[in-house]
Every structure is written in structure tokens, then in C-alpha cells.
Here is the input.
Amino acid sequence: MKILTTLIGTAMAVSPVAVMAQTGGQPVGTGQNLQPTEAQLQCITEQEVVAAQKAWGEGIVNIGKVYSAGGDYEKAAADHISEFYAYDQSLVLFKPTLASIEQFRPSFDGALSYFVGGNPSYPEDKGFAITPWTDVRWQNAGITNNICHMAVAMGNYYFTPADGGDEVKVEYTIGYIRDAEGDLRMTVHKSTIPYSGG
Here is the structure.
């Protein structure tokens, strides 16, 4: 167990050092204690992944509700990203569904722009989360946690638009790790519209 803990601690300490933050060029995790906590050493279960997926979907719906009610939807989106993504502790490989120019969003600001729009650095963003949606339904093709401390889920999720239109089917691949408190956070999130044959 001691060898495993050492290996995990080394992996968690080395990985962020290779990652430069989008602003300032400092490695993510600089100045932080990079030794894993007891909570981070616990294996991720399939049930936890399913619960995290449900909570993420509810968060997307909530951002749209705040927007529709004239509230601070940008704060709601920022809180959502902070809760579900690991931008503060790791490189996050985020490829949003409707991004075709700036396809990859390794920064918090890039993710926020995708969800709420309004950032001139990402003019293609219309604000995915403020569409708005009333429901997100998940259909996992599979969840794997072979290395115990990271889980990967793949499948389809279906977004129900508030205007009463048909569900929008989207494919996803999501990689989860634990934060210091043991909560699941995304380090990989690839989302695409299914191939249409065109």
C-alpha cells in the first residue's frame, strides 16, 4: 500500500507541474501541497459517477433558470464550473459540443464563455447553458475505473430545450478525479453531436 500511495502521490505531484496555466505561465498547483489526501486515495465508484452526472445536469438546468429569471447567470455558471471541473488543480481537457473555432477550452474563462457567451475572445459562443434547458438525461455506454483513482464515462446525454422542442442528443466522454475533499471533478470532457452521415 505504501508503494501504491507513493506512486499515486508522485503522479499527482508531477502531472500538474507539466501544465502551464493560461495566464502567467505558472504551473497549475504551484505552491500547493500536491500529496494526495486520504479522500483522494479512495477508489471512485460507478455510483459516484452517476451521482456526479446527475448533479452536473441539474447545474446546467439551474444556469438556464437563473438566466430566464434575470438573475446573475454568469455567477451561476462560474460556480458550476468551480464545482464540477478541476481547473484549479489540473489541466482540464474540455472540448465543448458547439465549439468549432476555439474547439478546446483548457482555461476556466474558455469554459465560462462556452456556457454563457459574451466573451469577445470566443465570438462563436452563444451560451450553451442559457439556451435554456429543462432536463439533462444520461445514458452511459460504460464507466471504467480500472486505475481506481480516475474514472471515465462514455455515452449519450439528452438535453430538453425549454421551448418544448425535441431532445438534443449529444455524445460524451468524461474523465473524473477526486479533489482534496473527495468530490468528483472533471479533468476530461469531450462532447460532440453524433455523426449524421453527411
